[in-house]
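Quick one, tokens below. Sequence please?
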């Protein structure tokens, strides 16, 4: 009886393992050719599941950036919004890989070197550029709390369009209050991220 149960358990385990393998193989098959990366980890995964890695060329990459949710996914992981100089809105991505492809695809913003961490950032700070990014994020929604920032920035753009950010505006307090709420939320998230990083790092 015990041997029968052990054999059954092993068969169930093997079946579950095969199902898991099939799932990952199908998943990789669906995203193969849509990952704008030459990461060795992605290549190793494809090799492990007997798939030929498909790396898009520059033209294909630009089409993916403009017409799919790829940029939303990247921004969810690597990007952030911020308010600079009290009335300038900023959109930033700090992952160096593919920044030139993003710039070439969108023809917006600029890429610059940040000496504070010896890295590169892609930034958009003009109103029309921000408006374009928000429209992309409305089409392909973010799946983190950054989606709240999309709504907030849409509102801030409306306020700026209607001159609420000017001190002489009778509605200046609305703009100031929304910026304050936005900055407090960012600060709270930064503290939470630090705590998660600290406790994980000290385990």
């Amino acid at each position: 009886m015990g041997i029968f149960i052990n054999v059954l358990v092993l068969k169930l385990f093997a079946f579950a393992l095969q199902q898991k393998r099939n799932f990952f193989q199908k998943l990789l098959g669906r995203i193969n050719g849509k990952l704008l990366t030459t990461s060795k980890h992605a290549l190793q995964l494809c090799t492990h599941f007997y798939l030929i890695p498909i790396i898009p060329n520059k033209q294909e990459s630009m089409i993916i950036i403009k017409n799919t949710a790829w940029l939303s996914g990247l921004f969810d992981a690597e990007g952030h919004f911020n308010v600079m100089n009290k009335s300038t809105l900023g959109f930033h991505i700090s992952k160096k890989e593919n920044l030139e492809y993003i710039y070439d695809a969108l023809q917006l913003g600029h890429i610059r070197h940040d000496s504070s961490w010896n890295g590169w950032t892609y930034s958009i700070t003009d109103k029309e550029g921000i408006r374009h990014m928000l429209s992309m994020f409305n089409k392909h929604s973010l799946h983190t709390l950054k989606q709240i920032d999309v709504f907030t920035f849409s509102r801030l753009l409306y306020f700026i369009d209607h001159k609420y950010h000017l001190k002489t505006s009778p509605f200046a307090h609305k703009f100031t209050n929304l910026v304050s709420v936005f900055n407090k939320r960012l600060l709270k998230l930064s503290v939470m991220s630090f705590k998660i990083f600290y406790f994980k790092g000290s385990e």
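The CA atoms of residues 77 and 144 lie 9 Å apart. The helical segments are 2-31, 40-48, 58-67, 70-78, 99-106, 127-139, 146-161, 172-201.
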